[in-house]
Every structure is written in structure tokens, then in C-alpha cells.
Amino acid sequence: METLALILAGGRGSRLDILSEKRVKPAVPFAGKYRIVDFTLSNCTNSGIYNIGILTQYLPLSLNEHIGVGKPWDLDRRDSSLSLLQPYKEWYSGTADAVLQNVAYIKRKNPKYTLILSGDHIYKMDYRKMIAEHEKNKAKLTIAVQPVAWEDTHRFGILTADESGRITKFSEKPKHADSNLASMGIYVFDTDVLLDALEKVKHPELDFGKHIIPYLLETSDLFTYVYEDFWQDVGTYDSYLEASLNLTSTVDKIQLDMYDRNWKIHTRSEELPSVKVGSKAKISQALISNGSIIAGDVKRCVLSPGVIIHPGATVINSVILNDTEVFPGAYIENAIIDKRCKIMENVVIGDGDDYTANKDNPSLLSSGINVVGSGVVVPKNTIVKRNCRIFSSAKFDNLVIESGSTLK
After folding, report:
1. So what's the pLDDT on residue 268?
2. Residue 17 phi, psi (nearest 5)
3. Against a cut of 0.70, is the pTM above it?
4. Cβ atoms of residues 356 and 338 within 8 Å
5. Quick one: average pLDDT of 48-62?
6. CA distances to 62, 76, 110, 171, 200 from 65, in Å
């Protein structure tokens, strides 16, 4: 076996807050009928990599049910292997620690190369090209990198490389960066080098960026693989909504082409009927999934399977997840509504000009987005202003939810 892919899919995704309340971040729905992890899985199979281990941890049920035996990605073949790897001794305490706890699995597979991937990024990438660069450079470790805005460098592992692509410096989330080449968290290791580093580097919270890469930089040849196409970590409400709504742009402005038949994004899809559009519906710039019924107004939205928009309802600049129903007279703007919600008659979500940041967690919500958890029934005539978090267990004691509120 030439290459084994290990997908790190156990992150809680705390910045997605309500959306990761009952599911791990890679299992969060995206782009209508997909899950975030579908992009990494599809990249693997489209790249001809059929030996995959998925390292899960937090709230794995939704992710495990979605992946199953891997049939949508053609991973149930005789010559393929899909393994769901959960902690069995103790909790994973870092990205490299998760791999360390599965060393026996890697040794059993005995691949020449080990490809480490994140399960919570949105992108399309042919890993064969990166592996070819790794071989050409005779590298021990190759790190996929992408130029980022200088003001964002503090959020990433930042690399400096010479003209050949050889890495000369690595800084984990530096306050003052010398480069804007950011690690994408995608690594190709010579497997023997990976196993040796995991054995020799000791730390209770072993991490690739903080420990393994700095160690190897002193002892081995490390190279960059520059990737300049679309890649995004949808780890915040703002980035999640922005990336979702970008998919509704006109063809010449779409950053992520979901319609490329040569690089399909595969998923486990429900058997639902075709989309139904009513005679009075008004729809523009929308992604609408199977099983949806649209009889109201929808503008610049992403609707997941089974969503119902009743006559007289309006939804603008929003993401509505599976089986949510929006009743007549309701108005929703700049919102993320999770699964199986009922937005009752004459509800307004996204009202007024008060942009007070969320009082419980201002770093999560300050741009005016409202987020509603799964299964919530928003009572008739309720007005939800801006930057509100409404959890699945919320109780509505008032019909006006002031900006910056959190309902639990």
C-alpha cells in the first residue's frame, strides 16, 4: 500500500457553538445536502486513495451514521479500507497524540506515505499532485500551505521557505510573522519518519504544529506544497454563513465549483422527492436541496433537504438546515437555523439596527447573525433582534428577544 490517509475528525468545533452542540464539527451540514467531512473524503477517493482511517472523538454518533461503511465514496470495495478510530485508552489530547494512539493501526497497514488531513475544511484538492512533489523533493515531510492575509497570520502555523520550497522556519500562531504562508494542516509524511518522531517526541498534549514539525525541522528535509485554490475553515458562524452564501453567487464568481463532473463531492443522500416550487414563490440566488417545498420568497439562501417555506414567508441571506418549516408571515434574515425547527407565523428573526454583540460570548456573534438550535419551535409573533443564540433547550418567556441575548 503506497498511501494511507488519516482524517482528524474528532474536533469539537467550539466556535460553531450551537451547530456543534449535538454533533462533531465535520458532521455539520454544508452546501445543502452535504456534510463538511464530505469534501475531505471525496478528495481522497477522487485522488485514488482508498485506504482511510477516520479519527473520531467528540459526539461521534452523527458522523459515524453518516459515513457508515463508506459506500457513497466507493469505500466498501474489496480493495479499499475504511476504519473509524475512536479513543480506546484515553482521550486524544492533541492532533499528533491522536495519531500516536493509533500507531498499531498504521504499522498494520504499513504504507510508504501517511497523509494527515483535517476533516473540517472546505476545499477540492488532488492529493496525488502533493505526493508527487513530496517524492520529487525527496522530502521527509511535505506541508500544504496557502498565502493568507497578513492580518490573519496569528491564527495559523506560519512557514518560511527558500526558492526550492524547503522550509527554513516554522512558527505556530506568531504575533509577528515573517511570512504569510500558512499551514493548511495537510501533511504528507514518509511513514518511517512519522513513526520515529511520534516515538521520540514526548509531550502530554502532542501536537503536529507545536511539537512534531519543530522537531523534524531540525533533523529532516521539510518542503512546502503551495495550494492557491479555494480553501476555507468554516469554524465560525461568520465564515460558515459567508462560505455557504458564496455558493449562491453567479457562475463567474463562484469560488468553489460544486458542479465539476470530473471532481464530484460525494455524500450519503436521503431518498427524497424533487424540489417543489409553488405558483407564488419568488426565488433568486438560492441553493435548494431535494425534498424542499418553496411557496414563499427566498433570496440568497442555502436550503437543506426537506425544508418547507410556506406562502407569505420570506427568507434572506440565511442557511436553513434539514426539515425546518417556516410558516406564513415569518421573516428571516442573516440567520442559521438548524434541523427540524418550526418558525411559526409572523415570527421575525433579524430585526432592527441594534448590533449589540452577544452578551454571553461576544467573540462568537457580533455581525448581526442569529443562530437557532435544532428542534426549536419559535412561537408566533416572536421578534428576534440581532446576534442572538437560541439553543435547542430554549424557553421563550418573552415575544421580543433583544439583541445580544442567549436563550437556553
Report:
1. 93
2. 50, -110
3. yes
4. no
5. 93
6. 5, 15, 28, 38, 36
d(CA 187, CA 189): 6
Length of the chain: 408
Residues 6 or more apart in contact with residue 24 via CB below 8 angstroms: 9, 10, 11, 12, 13, 56, 57, 58, 59, 60, 62, 63
pLDDT of residue 285: 95
Q: What is the pLDDT of residue 255?
A: 83
Query: How far, in whole angstroms, is CA 38 from its chain's centroid?
Result: 9
Burial grade of 79 (CB within 10 A; 0-12, 13-18, 19 or more): exposed
Q: Where in the chain is the domain with CATH 2.160.10.10?
A: 271-408
- Tell me the CATH number of domain 271-408, given options 2.160.10.10, 3.30.70.20, 3.30.470.20, 3.40.50.1100: 2.160.10.10
Residues 313 and 327: their CA atoms lie apart, in Å, by: 6
Query: What is the per-residue pLDDT across 213-249, written as a single tens digit (0 to 9) for each?
Result: 999 999 999 999 999 999 998 989 999 999 999 999 8
Domain with CATH 3.90.550.10 in the chain: 3-246
Residue in this structure with the C-alpha cell 412561537, named with its chain if needed: 379
Burial pattern 23-49, b for ≥16 Cβ within 10 A else e, equals bbbbbbbbbbbbbbbbbbbbbbbbbeb
Question: For residue 29, is pLDDT > 90?
Answer: yes
Amino acid at 289: S
Return d(Cα 154, Cα 313) in angstroms, integer: 42
CATH superfamily for domain 3-246: Spore Coat Polysaccharide Biosynthesis Protein SpsA; Chain A (3.90.550.10)
For residues 184-212, average pLDDT: 96
C-alpha to C-alpha distance for 245 and 345, rounded to whole angstroms: 25
Report d(CA 357, CA 86) in Å as an integer. Answer: 37
Q: What is the mean pLDDT of residues 187-204?
A: 97
Task: Average the pLDDT over 353-362 and give the result.
Answer: 97
